[in-house]
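Materials and Methods. Structural model of Alpha-2-HS-glycoprotein. The 364-residue sequence of Alpha-2-HS-glycoprotein from Prolemur simus was retrieved and submitted for structure prediction as follows.
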Amino acid sequence: MKSLILLLYLAQLWGCHSAPHGPELTYRQLNCDDPETEQVAQVAVDYINSHLLQGYKHTLNQIDKVKVWPRRPFGETFELEIDTLETTCHVLDPTPVANCTVRQLVEHAVEGDCDFRVLKQDGQFSVMFAKCDSSPDSAEDVRKVCPDCPLLAPFNHSRVVHAVEAALAAFNTQSNGTYFQLVEISRAQFVPLPVSTRVEFAVAATDCVAKEVTDPAKCNLLAEKQYGFCKATVTEKVGQEDVVVTCTLFQTQPVVPQPQPDGTHGVVPTSAPVDPAASVSPPAGPPAASLVVGPMVVAAHSRPPMHQAHYDLRHAFSGVASVESASGETFHLGKSPPVVQPGVAGAAGPVVPPCPGRIRYFKV
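The predicted structure was written out as tokens:
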């Protein structure tokens, strides 16, 4: 019996020494304001704006967290948490986001909160995971900054719908050419004094002449889409209302050939959504690393509920629960294995947290 026990003990001991001990997967901790981190964060912001089909472009406000995972056999995966702010540039506006104005607190700002996983391999970035949501600043916070500032109003409020219809009708009446149809109501606010409604909305050109239209339902969007963005104020007066509207028209969107099952190329149907990023010129400066859009994130074309007062980023695209690495490891949200911080281990005194990073505009 003693011999059997000794034999089992020796077998277990041999098994422990012979089993391979692979290195434990660790991540590299970067500073949130490190240039490399900022470059990856900008890739994430560009990805957001290239997938938006409604509302306004967003810009980077703050990097909250960053981890860099090794990707076997080569490459690295950046795990990012970032905050964004809504700009005043509509998604159809070809203006580069670097030249767009950030919407201020007194205008009822909107903040985005995003999680990203970005693979860097051979100098290229591939977005492997993307999840965002956004929300307007609270009414209480807006009132603290500006007690009389107008707040966001629901898109489907009767006053908002009427203001947009009146503004679009006025614009088409003044037009000597193309008749424009409504694409979306983008933003609305109720002004207390003088009692008025501010609206912003997107329009598209049709094949009808404005002064000849009798039935708008018979007008069709042009094959080469031309979009515009309008701002209007409808002021209520005794027995009447004043309508002031200005519209900016963007360059036409070319018809993009689409691959067909037989290998030929067809034409995009007139109802196909436009890619806002297609006509955006990159901002001046050093060339950025190229972005490769991975197949794991698909643009969502669903329209958010119209009782909302802004277009939530969560409707821009859908994410995936986890990202599988080339080594077979799966990184799940919330997993926290050991961390490697070059130059920090063994240092005397307290370590200054590298994150969150600097706030570029303001905190909502």
